[in-house]
TrEMBL record:
The keyword Oxidoreductase applies. The lineage of its organism: Bacteria, Pseudomonadati, Pseudomonadota, Alphaproteobacteria, Rhodobacterales. PANTHER family: IODOTYROSINE DEIODINASE 1, NADPH NITROREDUCTASE. Its EC number is 1.13.11.79. It catalyses: FMNH2 + O2 = dialurate + 5,6-dimethylbenzimidazole + D-erythrose 4-phosphate + H(+). It comes from the Bacteria. Belongs to the BluB family. GO terms for biological process: cobalamin biosynthetic process. This is 5,6-dimethylbenzimidazole synthase.
Amino acid sequence: MPLSPARPVPARIFTQAERQAFYDIVAARRDVRNEFEDRPIAEDVLKRILAAAHAAPSVGFMQPWNFILIRDPARRQAVQAAFAVANEEAAAMFPDEKQAAYRALKLEGITKAPLNIAVTCDRSRGGRVVLGRTHNREMDIYSTVCAVQNLWLAARAEGIGMGWVSIFRPEDLRRILGVPDHVEIVAYLCLGHVSELYDRPELAAKGWRARLELETLVMEEGWTGAAPEEEEDQSPAIR
Ligand SMILES: Cc1cc2c(cc1C)N(C[C@H](O)[C@H](O)[C@H](O)COP(=O)(O)O)c1[nH]c(=O)[nH]c(=O)c1N2
């Protein structure tokens, strides 16, 4: 395939409607646990979502990710069982007065969602010395998280809900999925069509934790001290 010349081409200017569509998708993305419908995701849709993930930035263009697609009900049952063990341990970590509220939350859609995806980071890809990772070894993990966020937004654009489940003993997932030691499991994701979604984070809707005010998080020129936590804002549209 002929390569295009190695110099910049004009940057496309997006229309106001295109920009707004992007911000609407960002604002309407949710972490989904329970609203999954029981119908498969079409292969062409899945391909586009994965292509969006693969278009993410990565340190030294390392592209350290793999996407393990998990559809087998028996394997998802095993993952669900691993979650249940860890979730019981998790509940016990909260102060007594929060444990009942924690146990009332639904924190995964592993068997309800028709598709699970484990996103991994191959820490050996691209060799030992990677451009941009020379002074911070975690940059390949951060890159993989960028891919997860692209995947999450693309899924929402396609009408697919996604939930991230992180309440596992890492060694349990590694065993169930047969992941080798040099590869880190960065995210375990549940995906499926959704026709209903919360209009704000479910944890906010259920009173677990409120969204912080953006203005309290922005600092000028240097660290000026974290502000005390404020009242919930109502997740306004981004305009
Ligand atoms: C790294 C990471 C890990 C997790 C999550 C997210 C991220 C980024 N979230 C989802 C999280 O609770 C959710 O994103 C916030 O509550 C905000 O809600 P929205 O994503 O805006 O709907 C999440 N949710 C859940 O029900 N079980 C889980 O184990 C996790 N784990």
